[in-house]
Amino acid sequence: MFDSEEKTNWRDVRLAAFDIFQNTARPKQNLFFNRNDLNDARLGEIVSAQIEDYETAEIVILGCPQDEGVARNKGRIGAALAPDAIRGQFYKLTDFGINASVFDLGDTIIQSTLEETHDLHTRIVGQILRDAKQIIVLGGGNDISYADGAAMAEVFGAENWLGLNIDAHFDVRADYPRNSGTPYRQLLDERLIEPKNFYEIAFQTAAASPIYHQYLVNSGVNLISLEEFRAANFAFQLPNLISTLEPSSAVFFGFDVDAVRAADAPGTSAPSPIGLAAEEFCALVTEAGKLPNTKIIEFTEVNPNFDIDNRTAKLVAIAMHKFICSAGKKIK
Fold this sequence. Notes:
Layout: H1 10-17, E1 24-25, E2 59-64, H2 68-72, H3 82-90, E3 102-108, H4 114-130, E4 134-139, H5 144-156, E5 161-166, H6 183-189, E6 198-203, H7 210-219, E7 222-225, H8 226-231, H9 234-243, E8 250-256, H10 278-290, E9 294-300, H11 311-331
């Protein structure tokens, strides 16, 4: 306990709890693009990675550069390269429309096993949430959704948060050990989220197991296929979906970029010729930013090894920009 009259700073308090800086690797400085043009500033010149600026930040960027879960799921590896690939494109963008202060914490330090990495990532995310900041998580494999969801449950309570998985796949495999196909099964089976508060959005029936679909139906999860998502005019569907969410609950959005059609996002772990268009994807992200209680927005399964002209990394970078713009208007 600190004496009520003793002057303490945020750094002292943090070290007494859990030091997120000792458990993350600082972002590479060469990713922070600098144009040296006062009339055309870029985010690489504006977003801070200096530890002393964390306290005043409203939105924190955190990477988790690993694809062990993808390898376990027999997928094509490469997602470990995604956080830096996305940063490389994000920091070339301008600050047009951005009002929120953004801080880049760097990357969760990868541990010897996926399980240990998840445990550490959960602690880091939990501390950032307790610091009352919004988080943009850059995967890595989609298995990181388990770690992010566990942090949501720990901080807000399992019954008090909403989870939305925007993905071509359910990611509720009954596999052991855990992998990129199991995160939401883990969260549901461990009762870290209420089924009625979980949404599977834009899943593709040709890529989804009917057995796992029935598991989700029996569990009481909200299911919206890609076909159902598009049944109504998509421009009207988004506000309708958002309006169903409980405004008092903390909200998590997991964006697996596999949900986007390969023409717009060729560099993913499991590409498909059908899926959300880039504009639909960005519109969903924008809506996520408008929600007052969005706590985490997560982008996973970008695979730079298979990207074309950085198209997929650029898409996520633009989506991040749109999220920050819409969140900033809300924050300010």
